[in-house]
Amino acid sequence: MARCLVTGGAGFIGSHLTERLLELGHEVVVLDNLSTGRSENLDQVKEHPRLTIRNGSITDPVLLGETTVGVDVIYHLAAAVGVKLVADDPVRTIETNIYPTEVLLRSAAAAKQRVFLASTSEVYGKNPKERWTEEDDLHFGPTSRPRWAYGCSKAIDEFLALAYHRKFGLPVVIGRFFNVVGPRQVGHYGMVIPRFVEQALKGGPVVVYDDGEQVRCFAHVKEVVNSIIRLVETPAAHGSVYNIGSDSPVSIRELAHEIIQRTDPAIQVEYLAYRDAYGDDFEDVRRRVPDVSRLAATIGYTPSMTLGQILDDIIRWKRDQLNRSA
Ligand code: UDP
User: Is the N-terminal amide bond of 290 cis, ω within 30° of 0?
Assistant: First the structure.
């Protein structure tokens, strides 16, 4: 049994990770400022005797220092996330994503704590390759486009983590998430599946941006958190970067139709220009598909739930939630 700190533990991925760590018998401290995280995400475990919840920001170095004392493993998930949030507030993105990570890595290196650093497929930027491996180049757009602030800030975190591993032997694993989805994910920050499901359950229309030919791969959060825990527990993974996600591509247009088929086939699809959705300075990533062979070789599996299974789970959750609030 380990004592684990989950920064961002009240967030979408963080809350699923916290529940799983508790289920496995670990002790968990959650640090979350409830900016994008929500305390309801931890409702099912909030009274758990092995869980401590600290409400505060990772940008407070004193609090961060206090919460890391006596911890064996740090899962660093707290960050400014979501394309919409990042485009709206690049200052917050940079301040939240860079300096606190450095503080945390430095203290973890001194205390010999294991670290999982949550990174993102955004670091590949607009790389035109069909499938991205961890050794591929990062292709960011210009600094006048705020979207790239997110991927750049996470790339700096990765450089820092790898440097701490090389210089001080920090046992750190970096995971680049590819469109992680599931119950509790909200649509306010731009994420497509919760938005489409909510639009469909409210009678439509489902609003697809641009031509809908953008391609993504969606992975269920429960499979993703299992992969994270396995990586941290695998010494051979320390000092490496991993793509974490599904490698089954789907276009956003097909995704909209899948959701409509599962909710109400009469619902209409509407198309909206990027300019009207995100403003003039927005650039999308047309295709985002990971090569997950490094993950498979290290832990022996990769997220494998089908899109249909994932959508059924999310629709069931969202229906319950809408019924409860009705
Ligand atoms: N998207 C969409 N409608 C929405 C939200 C997103 O068509 O209401 C599209 C978006 O343009 C992108 C894809 O869905 O091509 C995935 O968007 P999301 O923000 O979920 O993830 P990311 O772009 O970070 O992969």
Answer: no
Q: Is the CB of 191 under 6 A from ligand 1?
A: yes
What's the token pair of residue 221? 């959060």
Residue 24's φ and ψ, nearest 5 degrees, are -80, 0
Pick the CATH number of 3-182+220-246+290-305 from 3.40.50.720, 3.40.50.300, 2.60.40.10, 3.30.310.50: 3.40.50.720
Distances from the Cα of 321 to the Cαs of 54, 185, 204, 316, in angstroms?
26, 12, 17, 9
pLDDT tens-digit map of 170-224:
999 999 999 999 999 998 877 999 999 999 999 999 999 999 999 999 999 999 9
Catalytic residue among 75, 124, 150, 242: 150
Counting ligand 1 atoms within 8 A of each CB, the residue from 81, 178, 216, 310 with the most, and so the one to mutate, is 216
DSSP assigned state of 166: H
**d(C-alpha 7, C-alpha 69), whole Å:** 14
Which ligand 1 atom minimizes the distance to the CA of 209?
A: 7
Ligand 1 atom at minimum distance from 252 CA: 14
